[in-house]
Protein 1
Amino acid sequence: MSAALAPDVVLSAVVGGVDTGVVLQASDWEFVYRNRRFLLLGAGVTVALTLTSVVLGLLAGLPAGIVEVYGTGPVAGAVRRTGVLLRGTPILVILAFTFFVNPVNLGAFEAATLGLGLRSAAYQSQIFRGAIQSVGGGQMEAARSVGMSQYEAIRHVVVPQALRRSIPGFQNEFTIVLKDTSVAFFIGLAELITRGFNLFTQPGQSESVLEVILAVSAVYFVLTVLTNQGLELLGRRFAIPGTGGER
Amino acid sequence: MSLLEFEDVHQSYGDEEVLRGISFGMDRSDVEVVIGPSGSGKSTMLRCVNRLTDIDSGTIYLDGEPVTTPETDVNDLRRRVGMVFQDFNLFAHRTALGNVTLGLREVLDYSKEEARAEATSQLERVGLADQADSYPAELSGGQKQRVGIARALAMDPELMLFDEPTSALDPELIGEVLRVMRDLAEEGMTMLCVTHEMGFARSAASTISFLDEGRVVERGPPEQLFEAPEHERTGEFLERLTSLHGGQQG
Ligand SMILES: Nc1ncnc2c1ncn2[C@@H]1O[C@H](COP(=O)(O)OP(=O)(O)O)[C@@H](O)[C@H]1O
Ligand SMILES: [Mg+2]
């Protein structure tokens, strides 16, 4: 089956389901349970894709945020415009470019990482930009006043504080990427949603669509909650004593 | 030769000329107190010395060398000139000790152990050795400002700039900061201080400058300005300050 044809098939499956009256059925739950390994492997791909995308987003987004605050000249301008372009492009279009249009032949996982990672970098750059600006000019002036270079001041004074302030925004971004890995369905990557789709489109299984989708969304939900709790813990672990964040 | 010299320094923000021809010199171990109404350019004057603000024309010399030229190594200049801020600007994510070690590590390339030893002795100098592991948010205003002073002193500066170091403090915390400043003055540190603490100015200053609208209106030893000011404005301003901030002897 060609990946690009998939959306049509989904639609007919759902419409077909409505026609026959989709209801929760024990036999369908049993079908989900029988295929749990198949689905969990998809969850594994989802987790892996989330991690690679968020890390790429961090590695590109943090320097981009720094350049947006402190940069001057053509490089800073290029970074700002690239961010605007990426934030203004639908993720499916970005994936179409990284997978179908890209002259370098990437596998679906790599193309999805590149697309989701670049888009996340564009959003993360804004999280870091805001966090850096909230640290305040006084910290930079104090660092420069003892003779630190701008780079040293950014690295040792501004960024450590900005990263702490980025955690709430980063928490959001992380969970958004986690759920948006589902768009890799578009390029046929066998992540969680794609595998769910493959289950209920099997011959004779169209009535299991509701159970499959519920099971899949439960996995996303659990992963999201775990992510949020993990990052909250990280935030508390690195909270600056005396500022009320460590509890 | 003067340690610090201003020669017809002009500076503006946009159309607003903030410094309108400042000229004066300070010798080594002088304590110059600058007073003047809000907005008269006191902070700007200090910031021009360590190039946090760039001047439009004129020259500032440190130890005989012009430091307002494009060739000046700004980081080296700032290493040689310590600055203490009104609102402390301590590095919020580092302990008191960490605030002092950072410059030693990054700018002077001290080893970890050397930096720790030097920072500890600077904290002792300001009476805060027991707070070495406290974070800024855990310190009182007076303690924060003393850490700020220790951080600047650790770089072994030739000149210290103080920009209203006690203005953000509760009255009962002012004395501990002034005491440290007085000790420094007695040790022979060259200090350029914007402060309205008249007790400190009277007893510690070698010279007081009255700055108004970007010009040094009057300048002289404390006795002269307090007892026999040449300009009416100076006398009025000093009288007002003394009634407001005369109490702290430091
Ligand atoms: N970064 C700045 N941009 C524009 N104007 C400024 C800036 N800093 C100070 N000023 C203006 O310059 C004048 C002098 O300021 P300042 O040197 O801070 O005075 P003081 O310290 O004596 O109160 C004030 O009118 C102030 O509004
Ligand atoms: Mg000021």
Protein 2
Amino acid sequence: MDDDTSPRLMSGNEAMARGALEAGVGFCTSYPGTPSTGIAEYIMSRAESIGIHAEWSVNEKVALEAAAGASWAGIPSLCSMKSLGLNVASDSLLSMNLSESGDGGFVIIVGDDPRGHSTSTEQDSRFYAKAALLPLLEPSGYQEAKDSVAYAFDISRKYKVPVIIRSTTRLSHSRGLVNLCPIDIHDFPRPLKMKENLFNVPDPHLARRDLRIKIRKISEAFDKSTFNRLRVKKEAELLTIASGICQKYAEEAMEEIGVENTGTLGLVTTHPLPKKVVAKAIKRAQNILFLEETDPFVEDAIRSFSTELISVSCKFHGKQNDLVPAHGEINTDLAIQGAQKALGLKFSRLDEKEEKIRESARKLLIRRPLTFCAGCTHRNVYWAVRKVKQRLGGKLFVAGDIGCYSLGVFYDEAISTLFSMGSGIGIASGLGQLHSFGLDSRIAAVAGDSTFLHACIPALINAKHKNANVTLMILDNSTTAMTGFQKHPGEEDQPEGQRMVSIEKIVQAIDPDFYAVGDAADLSSTIALIHSTVRKDGLNVLLFKSICRLEEQRMGESYTEQGRVYIDSDACHGESCKICAAQFGCVAIGWHDETARPIIYDHVCVRCGACVIVCPHDAIKQG
Amino acid sequence: MKEDYNILIAGVGGQGNLVCGRVLSEAARLKDLHPVIGETFGASRRGGTVLTHLRISNHERGPLIPKGRANLLLGMEPLEALRASIEYAGKQTVAVVSTARVETPESLSDAAEYPPTDKIIEAISSICGEVIAIDPVEALEKSGGLRLLNSYLLGAISVLKGVPISKDDIRESIRRTLQNPDLNLATFDLGVTDALKLSR
Ligand code: SF4
Ligand code: SF4
């Protein structure tokens, strides 16, 4: 096991996972989602050797429920997920919060993604802590990320409440130095003793009242926490109050603005507020600048709390008065800007000449949108959708879903909606009932294999039950590719101790009017199958056997056995066609301006042969 | 060290950008420095812009280089080097830029025009203090193709002055961090040779 405890570079995710292991976590559940995936991954890589349980649950709601169950049996439990995952789990969170958590402690880590780098929306998940009346921690660095997990377990055990830790992409996905402690092999109390009275009825309002009392006590405990650091000499002209990774931006900004008399309050325990610490900070500052990711969460709480204090003379600045943006990611520059505006200083990073230079440089730039990998079968399916759409005069509406295939929004707008897990077939089940209203478009939805199991089943049942005219295309590449190949129940190949749940059998149990299995690697048959199916009334399900090329390469595939793909320059129609490079757009196909012919980048090409079918002039050959 | 040293690695998903960052941050560790390294994931494998921010300091910094504050820009692709330099470079920046272009889906479909490489280098030069434009194609054909671009460029930056990590640290870090270290080290040396030729 990990006997080597020398300091090392760890991501925020790894540090939090390590913190959980050092704190003696026994049961860990998660569903993959950027930026939180790495937490459970780290724990899983060590779970067996330490003798603890770690799982990719089927979705976040189940993950939360499973971990809560284990916590009630006395096992220290951890549940990690991304922002939108907590939405899925919130149904249970917002009622379980009123029943005490178990003796082992229960910690929930949520990874927010400000700016939505890898998320279909931007969300600040901290409001769940407020809604559920639960304590919330926001670590600011790597060591603190690790240490905050042990502290969260302490608070959870002492006050018998789940504790939420919020990380953000920048902390989760960046690395810094962390000092480690050994991981002990834990003995969990045997026999396990289940907690009793795990329900809120008949008096949920009283349970809520009691939780409020608890949260007051936790506020007092937070006042004593060494995680919150106030650094201020006498009265500061400007004091920043920052949480999470923004603490680092605040520190650097205060060094940069060249104002002598500044201070910082770094808050890690952001709900409930450590009121005494905050009051002390407010009294020592003329101006306060709030720095936090996404919403004015701490800002609002402190602005509201300040009304309880007598004779507050300091001015508050932050997102509420637009000195700091309430959308996108915060960074040091925005912190500097906010500070300068708060003090009425003139802000400019560059002189006019340098601005001009950048302005003209910027004119050269072109975008670089994301695209599918070389030979990705999702591209084939969307190419087929494009062809079918053309044949149907554009009258095909495809609702999209969450996964690699979400990139379909950028691929000729092959999919028209993109929201939450499972929303595609849900939306389609509504649209598919509008034919009696005169809707003249065919309705389809796509979903990946992991997404199907996560959230599509109720909507598919709804579509069948309500007699909707819908085609669901399940793109089954047998892995959770978007987040890095996590195992899910639908895969044939399962790790020891886990069993397969067949997607095909689930679909057949719902008994669609038409069901067929397609091969997404075969472009011609894919076009034909989609074309013939979407025109059928009733519920149709197409299960496309798909291939994730990254997963394939990870497993050691090298493609040298298939023949090389090349261009027959004489047959090629060049610029007047350019369908392969410009429309199909496999990233292994480039364009050679001098010869006006495509080139196949052999080091990227997976020799799938799809472009051979795409070329209308038989100019792409394989062999 | 008195001042922070900021390295920005700009490239396209699949070029080995993150590996470069790992190698350099482990090399900084060998010097007992305090690296913080911010990586962009998700897009990293799917052909989008990838930036790795490496900040070397004697204490823990935030993971993002402030605007205009890069000391070294490692450009794995010209267009991405330009994009990064507009935001993060300044007169103190030394940029080492590979001239091997990676087209965008739109430049391939003629929806947008990929600017000429010399125009790009010119624009980067107008922003940065010093630019070393390096064509990796010939050297990489000898060693094993564009997959090794990262090791080649690491070699190229190792000859620069003022970088707080030495050539030997980077070599040692490659040995520890990468699979197939021999091939990577040989490619690293090609980068060293070519960069020395250019800076002379
Ligand atoms: S699709 Fe065929 S004919 Fe058209 S440009 Fe490509 S190779 Fe040439
Ligand atoms: S065979 Fe054609 S479609 Fe397949 S990866 Fe190679 S270039 Fe792309």
Protein 3
Amino acid sequence: MTTTVPHPAAKTTVRDRLLRLAETVTTPLLPEDYLDLVAPLRAGAALRGRIVAVEPETRDAATLTIRPGRDWRGHTPGQYVRLGVDVDGVRQWRAYSLTSAPDRPDRLISVTVKAIPDGRVSNHLVRRTRVGTVVQLDQALGDFVLPDPVPARVLFLTAGSGITPVMGMLRAGVHTRADVVVVHSAPTPDDVVFGAHLRALAAQGGIRLVERHTDRDGLLGVAELATLVPDHLDRQTWACGPVGLLDAAEQHWTAAGVADRLHTERFRPTVIAPGEGGSVTFTRTGLTLAADGGTPILDAGEAAGALMPSGCRMGICYGCVLPLRQGAVRDLRTGELTTAVPGDGVLIQTCVSAAAGTCDIDL
Amino acid sequence: MTVIQHKPVNPIAHLSAEDIETLGKELDAIRDRVLAERGASDAAYIRKVIKTQRTLEMSSRAVLLFSLFPPAWVVGTAGLAVAKILENMEIGHNILHGQYDFMRDPKIHSTTWEWDHVSPADQWKHSHNQLHHTYTNVLGKDNDLGYGIMRVDEDQKWYPMHLGQPLWNFVNACFFEYGIAAYDLELGRNLRKGRHKAPEFRARLRAVGRKIRRQVLKDYVIHPLLSGPSFLTTLAATFTANLIRNLWSHSVIMCGHFPSGVETFSKTSIEGETRGEWYLRQMLGSANISGSRLLHIMTGNLSFQIEHHLFPDLPSKRYQEIAPQVRALFDRYGLTYTTGPLPKQVASAWWKVIRLSLPNRETARPAADEPPARVLATSGV
Ligand SMILES: Cc1cc2nc3c(=O)[nH]c(=O)nc-3n(C[C@H](O)[C@H](O)[C@H](O)COP(=O)(O)OP(=O)(O)OC[C@H]3O[C@@H](n4cnc5c(N)ncnc54)[C@H](O)[C@@H]3O)c2cc1C
Ligand code: FES
């Protein structure tokens, strides 16, 4: 073929050429398939991490310290990382807030996981993970972070494992730059993840800590904040915890007309409306499966062995988006119906969408 | 063999329709038990085989850099042949069957895997998984029966060109991967029907061309060049390794469906086939190879062809585990579990190729004008 159009300045570097040559040596595999055998954390590899320590925090929570691959770009306190873990031989992806300070000299990162009843990944990580295991990672994500400069007065409203992103912020030293109150709920004093650390910070006067032990004193009602933290509505608040707490907080702050001062992080979506279900076809893979109306298409596809893209698995990161070629899906959070007719490519979040009829998805 | 429906003594006449459905349920139960256990050990197994294979392949190729030196030639060629066999059989064939899709590891998945073979993975998956495994041993539907170039069943019509089939079979064995590529392309049929200009066929042809180019470049240009003064000896070594791999996989695959004892089926017999009947066809249409653990690994566990055909997507190392249960079912239902050592099965398959290169002797055929009844739902026990 002859062409008169000059090539755009797409420079093939020596490195590219070497890589192409290496590919002719290893085809049908890629050079990386061999390199991964010896150096899974090297620069240029798919991002992975090696677990270097597993330390229990409470009877059902543990902190995993991870050496990330060379291409790890660091994180902002409050962000989370997606972890791909092989549980019973099956790759499972879950999001975990980073609990380490962002600038550790040893470049290690940590996440703190609370095992939830019947939770597949959380129980595996807390109870069965061995040091030396290589896990898959993604770059840090999330906007549950403090602005710069940090507001003068800050409230952290947390419960259970919801303390994790806050711990990352405390380790980065927010309390040295702001007046910080932490209101944290857990069943008993022993169940407080990072209890010793938080109490020590409070004892040194770094933060004001309000612990709520729900086995004895019952769940915290947001109305109680008026007495516990009288100026809470004047503070910038970061809240993370179970759905009930976050929903109540959102109502409370909205009713007071200061919804903009409340920042929340949810660990799971609030599901309200199961759809009708239907058969889902992944058109490129040629896989058809029956999905019920309560199961996200992401979960249904994974269970059938499809390689589904995914991210937070709760509707915030858009890492799971796929084109719906035709059919109907229902958003599990809002009940909203999305339809597509042949020729369309409506982008849907598979992690929060269930089939509402026969669907063709471009995968 | 003769299509089961034409046999003087029908080997499944003693089974009632209910028997066949119960048999199907028992096989489903075996499958469910494996699925319940499938997990970490299967993932660890395939990762270990892959790691071993890659290490072996790279070290053999490294040794071949010095292939001018005869001991290096021998060691490197043997290592490379074994690596290529592992890659095609225990790794490629089984991953492309989706046996490890459950792991959700994008690096070990039927939709992303490409193998060391001139037939591109997606074309092979179509002709093998969708056609051969669905229409196993159905005359006129399963092209694996003689690959469209040979007569391997009395019920296939004899033409004079079949006289040469022992020779075709030998040539096919030596260049088996090209034979498979041609077969996956349905080259013969597409050319015969004048479809060589159809865009779909041309696209597939181009894909095969690209794959062949890459494979040949790697094996016969790049690696020999890297060997410098050992250029020619490395070229000969890679050729030999490919030849060994081809002869080996051809032998193993012949043993799967050609030896005596294996049944074939007529097209009409599979109309409206139930799950139980499908299982039964797989049971009777396949043959195993008996042998050591090493043999099983080197055949990609296709030595458990019967178990593989019953459950093509279960991780291959499970076949050995369930074989006694499957065999017990054969015994209980009065069916013949065809198996034998490799040399015997290979000889049996070759004997058939030679025998059927000649027309049938008339006594071999019962009255052919009886209607091809759906045997799978006949008399009670
Ligand atoms: C942005 C983000 C940050 C997160 N950070 C952390 C963290 O720092 N520490 C941490 O422990 N977890 C965190 N999570 C939650 C975590 O990703 C998993 O959802 C959690 O570990 C449960 O996974 P599993 O596989 O154990 O449970 P699954 O096997 O998926 O679920 C088991 C059962 O538990 C329910 N369930 C699922 N998730 C939760 C949940 N979060 N709480 C209560 N019930 C649930 C399910 O509906 C199901 O019935 C975070 C989630 C998000 C989206
Ligand atoms: S996985 Fe994050 S939006 Fe669906």
